[in-house]
Amino acid sequence: MFFQLTEEQKMMQKMVREFAEKEVAPGVAERDEQSLFDRSLADAMGEMGLNGICFPEKYGGADSDYLSYILAIEELSKVDDGVGITLSATVSLCAGPIYAYGTEEQKEKYLRPILEGTHMGAFGLTEANAGTDAASQQTVAVADGDHYIINGSKIFITNAGEAETYIVFAMTDKSKGVKGISAFILEKGMPGFTFGKKEHKLGIHSSITMELVFQDVKVPKANLLGKEGEGFKIAMNTLDGGRIGVAAQALGIAQAALDHAVKYSKERVQFGKPIANNQAIAFMLADMGTKVEAARLLVYKAAWNKDQGLSYSKEAAMAKLYASDIAMEVTTDAVQIFGGYGYTCEYPVERLMRNAKITQIYEGTNQVQRMVISGALLR
Amino acid sequence: MAVVVIQDKCISCGACVAVCPFGAIVMQDNDKAFITEACTACGACIETCPVSTIVREEEEKTVAMDKKEYKGVWVFIEQAEGHIRGVSHELLGEGRKLAEAMGQELAGVLIGNQVEPLTKDVFASGADKIYLVEGPEYNHYSTDGFATALADLIKTYKPSVILMGATNDGRDLGPRVACRIGTGLTADCTNLDIDGDTGLVAWTRPAFGGNIMATILCPEHRPQMGTIRPKVFKRPVQDFSRTGEIVRVTSKVKPEDIRTKFIELLQVSAASCNLEEAEVIVSGGRGMCKLENFKLIEELAEVLGGTVGASRAAVDAGWKPALHQVGQTGKTVGPKIYVACGISGAIQHIAGMSSSDIIIAINKDADAPIFKVADYGIVGDVMEVLPVMIEEMKKIRQA
Amino acid sequence: MDILVCVKQVPDTTEVKIDPQTNTLIRQGVPSIVNPFDKNAVEAALQLKEKQGGKVVVISMGPPQAKDALKECLAMGADEAYLISDRAFGGADTLATSYTLAAGIRKLGKFDMILCGKQAIDGDTAQVGPEIAEYLDIPQVTYVAKVEINEGVVRVEREHEEGYEIIETTLPVLLTVVKSINEPRFPTVKGTMKANRKEIPVITVTDVEVDPERLGLKGSPTQVRRIFTPPQRTQGEIIQADSARESVAILIQKLSEAKII
Questions:
Q1: Taking chain B, what is the end-to-end CA distance rounded to the nearest angstrom?
Q2: C2-214: what fold?
């Protein structure tokens, strides 16, 4: 076993860290306060080539490994995890399935601009009545000549409104149940395809979340992704990969909270000494540090499995489950260590705590993750 | 390696590794400290080692010149548009002290076009002698022209010490000449002394962004050269009854020897950005929050008759052009009064203005490091304090 | 045009702190970076190459870990990188450093332009650039904030006390650049990967034609007598009244008492 990043991975990590500290960090508080999505950051990440890290050069990618991409999400998330998830949604949830299931034409048309950094992507599965029960899709796609007509809506879609490309799931044959769902590639601007309200969330304010509304949207048959009826399989496989990205986001949040707490506890003096001198605080930090390290090993191992071509579904679920749960714990503890100051917006830990919560919910709630893990264990 | 760890005495405590500013000491696999080639022989580790096991290996230096032949303290007189830069006067004052301590004479080096009228001013500040090189080719500063002239003077008249102002031109000329002669130059000095043990000039200068000070010697090479920060030394009281000898030297520079051509000077700010000569500077930092708020800085500067400065954060934010930046990598200033508004006080900034006589700071963060160096500090919001200050200062000015 | 950029790996002196008890520098945990002004120089070189064609070569003198700094420059887009490194070069002051670098540059060939950052943020001397120009006998312009080349004429804006000097010169020339000249680009993923795979040749003392007396400590006319932390200015008076008006009134009173105004 070799627990070291390669030289290339270290360089990648350093590069993204510097970008995050220089370009992403300055505006993080403002974006959070004002719920500002900054497209220029997504564009900068695209220009640097972050969208294409783990895709082949043939389509505009950099031919590097999945772990390098995960490192990038972690570094971004340490600074502003809303920006981390913006990248993750574009790459794992949109570029991912097009690469895995798309035709050559689809890859040229939709994958290339994402990998080259000019386009953002989004993934439209969740509906008002279809969250964890993703199979009860009510959005329908009716075949009509050389088109499908899509009607329905999606909620809680990350990157909605900004992304140029959307993977949208719809029911093509209700009688087949789960096997009647298909996946489509939609473009922003298609007539009938509009956006609904922008969500006001507890956290990740720098990430944009909106509804998708489809009113008789004519989608060419050429935009069917995979085969009719394959939609659910595509969705589940995509989410498997996206899971490690969310785990990396949670890991970044947790690491940032730990770093802030360690620094503060050395500086804050009460009763004539830094609060770090108290075992109560020191032991809290010890527990926090251990959790973060354990999460890191799970996240990196899941990514490594994927790179090695080994099965990674269970590992990805474990990484997402653990990293998100400890992120919530570590950020809550960090606010506690900061005391009254931690509760104010002057310090970043309250934002980290708010942001951590979503990682336990999206891309498969942690209850779903437990289903996946127990399913794998009990096979 | 000139500074070495005596391996078998090393106790592996790692103190030297932690203290080396250049990261040049590593702990080897056998747990002994080892000094790599990144070492600059600064000696910080020698003092830190608890068992005194780090030593300087004495190297025989090639003796390049016969030091006894080199006598005299020279000050390079920087002039433009018919007047002499303040720093040259300051250096004449300091040069006088060095010359007396060394029992040698003080000379000014004046290179320019039709600059003989300026010699009175130079004598008044204390020079015993002036080496004068004139010609149209020196109408404006050029590296080639001035380096050739100065190097030629050095070879002919062999001074022991040369002082130059650490101005843009001074720091352009100094290294070129030092290299041509093959001697040592210490840049951007903030203090000069005569080293008790050796009788050499001890040049003290900041390094590491102002975090440490280094004292440098030039033992075997001559002349000992240095560029000195403006406003570090006081301008001497001038005595216009003084005169001295003018040594007129023919210029050996031909126009075709000068490979750069000065076209014109672009003035960038409406306000003057000559911070080095300013008596009062009002500076703004990140705490000003936006461009519009800098108007307050400009107003206060105007009321106090001063110049506007900016911290690196303010320049990076685009609120002021780079020429206004005060700091270790910007301009170093030494005004009578420096008002720091919304500036937190990073070491690099302080390094650029710590020679100010009086520092007044305004910042809403009571813990801001700037308050540790300020003579007077107001803890408060610049947006509230500045308008009141401007109002009150206006009243005083009218009174 | 063939452009050479001299870069140095330095500790990030904005992160350096002084230990309050021992009054010494705390070097540990301070990351090594490419000297920021040298990054500006690399960016300037890349922009010139984009306009004029040619190649950008970077060279650094330092211990083996300086290769990381060179890799960053390659990741930005430089074509070749060389490290000049040898125990014989150690302990060098600026003169010996410039002598060594000039020898290395001569070995690499003829360049149309040499770019350097205005100063290194650890040494802060700003001497190596001009000294290399002297050793190579080429003209120099320092503190360059803008550079343009048109039909062999190099036109620069040079930072000066009062504004910017417009200077013209021809190639070959050495320029030292200031921060305001450009915003260095971020390396790209592809650039980083290419850089990591690229070989960085090391030039040692046997590869260059040098006089050993002029290398390292032996060839350094200046030597460090001692290092110390700067005397701290002591804290003065802090005024924190209830209103801005009161605070200013107190300040003005104190300034008048001290006869400052």
A1: 67
A2: Rossmann fold (3.40.50)
- Report B:168-227 residues touching C (Cβ under 8 A): 168-169, 171-172, 174-176, 178-180, 182-188, 195, 202, 205-221
- The Cα B224–Cα B202 span in angstroms is 10
**Catalytic site includes residue A33:** no
Interchain proximity A50–C192, CB inside 8 Å: no
What six digits make up the tokens of B212?
């440490």
CA distance B225 to B187: 9
In chain C, what residues touch B167 (CB-CB under 8 Å)?
161
Contact B252, B206 (CB under 8 A): no
Task: Give A351 to chain C, closest Cα distance, Å.
Answer: 26
What is the reported pTM?
Answer: 0.84
Question: Which amino acid, B228?
Answer: I
The two tokens of residue A87 are 């990248």
* Per-residue pLDDT tens digits for A273-288: 999 999 999 999 999 9
Residues in C closer than 8 angstroms to A64, CB to CB, are 189, 193
What Cα–Cα distance (Å) separates residue A52 from each residue in A62, A113, A207, A230, A252? 6, 10, 20, 25, 21
Check if C195 contacts A (Cβ < 8 Å). yes
- A127-131, B211-215, C35-39: segment of lowest average pLDDT: B211-215
Asked if C193 and A52 come within 8 Å (Cβ–Cβ), the reply is no
* Residues contacting residue C221 through CB under 8 Å, at least 6 positions apart: B64, B182, B183, B184, B218, B220, B221, C93, C95
Which residues of chain B are modeled with pLDDT < 50?
1
The tens digit of pLDDT for each residue in A220-239 reads 999 999 999 999 999 999 99
Which residue bears the tokens 């540090």?
A289
Please say if the pLDDT value at position A155 is more than 50. yes
Rounded to whole angstroms, the Cα distance separating B331 from B311 reads 10
Do the Cβ atoms of C134 and B274 come within 8 Å?
no
Amino acid at B393: M
What does the alpha-carbon distance between residue A278 and residue A120 come to, in Å, rounded to a whole number? 48
Q: Enumerate the residues of chain B whose CB falls inside 8 A of the CB of residue C16.
A: 21, 208-209, 211, 347
Tokens of A299: 């996240």
What is the C-alpha separation between B329 and B341, in angstroms, rounded? 20
- DSSP letter at C88? G
Q: Quote the Cα angle for B232-B237-B241, to 5°.
A: 140
State the pLDDT at residue B66: 82
What value, to the nearest 5°, has the Cα angle with vertex A71 and ends A69 and A73?
A: 75
B396 vs C contacts (CB less than 8 Å) = 252, 261
Task: Kindly tell me if the per-residue pLDDT of C46 is higher than 80.
Answer: yes
Please state, in angstroms and rounded to a whole number, the distance separating the CA atoms of residues B270 and B265.
14
How many A/C residue pairs have CB atoms within 8 Å? 42
- A131 has a chain C CB within 8 A of its CB: no
Within 47-86 of C, beta carbons closer than 8 Å to A belong to: 71, 75
Q: What is the pLDDT of residue B63?
A: 64
Chain A partners within 8 Å of C190 (Cβ): 49, 62
Of A8, A19, A48, the CB nearest to C193: A8
Per residue in A29-71, pLDDT (tens digit) is 999 999 999 999 999 999 999 999 999 999 999 999 999 999 9
pLDDT tens-digit map of C178-235 = 998 999 999 999 999 999 889 999 999 999 999 999 999 889 999 988 888 877 777 8
Q: Which of C215, C98, C220 is nearest to B221 (CA)?
A: C220
How many other CB atoms are there within 10 angstroms of residue A246's CB atom?
31
Supply the DSSP symbol for C229: P
**A19 near C CB under 8 A:** yes
Domain residue ranges of chain C, discontinuous segments joined by +: 2-214, 231-261
Helix (H) or strand (E) run with residue C253 in it: helix C244-257
